[in-house]
Amino acid sequence: MTDFNQENNRAVWFDIPVADLDRANTFYAGVLDIKVEPINAEGIRFSVLEHKDGNGGCLIPRPEEITADKGPLLYLNVEGRIHDAMARTTELGGRVLEGVQAIGPHGYRAVIVDSEGNRMVLHSMTDA
């Protein structure tokens, strides 16, 4: 996590609970079109989502925390490829709850359920 993130963002990190880490790695790498790095540190397995200088997060095996019907919504950046990301969602074992919809000056979103059963939002400033 960079100093910029700690000083300028309310949300600085996120954990996404998963039931099957390998399946979730494939899902997030494919839908977000990013690298997902599996890590085994001191007997704890998790995977870090590529984030460079931006806010980051990881996939962590905690199936008891998975929910698709309540709680906060995490908006994941798929800038310029929201329709492709929705298609990849279903190809990789997820499902689309709400297709692409405009959210005024804040761009576009699509609500999905990931391969593990978590409700998420795909976000893009363009409808592409």
Pick out its properties:
alpha/beta, 2,3-Dihydroxybiphenyl 1,2-Dioxygenase, domain 1, four-stranded mixed beta sheet, 37% strand
Structure description:
The protein is an alpha/beta fold and 128 residues long. It has one domain: 2,3-Dihydroxybiphenyl 1,2-Dioxygenase, domain 1 (Roll). Helix content is 22%, strand content 37%. It contains 3 helices and 8 strands. It has a 4-stranded mixed β-sheet, with helices on one face. A hairpin with a 2-residue loop joins β2 (36-41) and β3. 20% of the residues are buried. The model has no long low-confidence stretch (mean pLDDT 92).
In short:
With 128 residues, the chain is an alpha/beta fold. It contains three helices and eight strands; from the N terminus they run αβαββββαβββ. It starts with a helix and ends with a strand.
Q: Average pLDDT value?
A: 92
What is the C-alpha radius of gyration, as a whole number of Å?
14 Å
Estimate percent helicity. Answer: 10-25%
Shape: globular
Strand content: 35-45%
In the residues, how many domains can be counted? Answer: 1
CATH topology: 2,3-Dihydroxybiphenyl 1,2-Dioxygenase, domain 1
How many helical elements? 3
Biggest sheet: strands, sense, closure? 4 strands, mixed
CATH architecture: Roll
What gap, in angstroms, lies between the N and C termini? Answer: 30 Å
**Helix/strand/pairing class, anyone?**
alpha/beta
Q: What's the arrangement of strands in the largest beta sheet? A: 1-4-3-2
Encode the helix/strand succession as letters: HEHEEEEHEEE
- Identify the CATH class: Alpha Beta
Q: Using DSSP, what is the number of strands?
A: 8
Fourth-tier CATH superfamily name: 2,3-Dihydroxybiphenyl 1,2-Dioxygenase, domain 1
Q: Point out poorly predicted stretches.
A: none
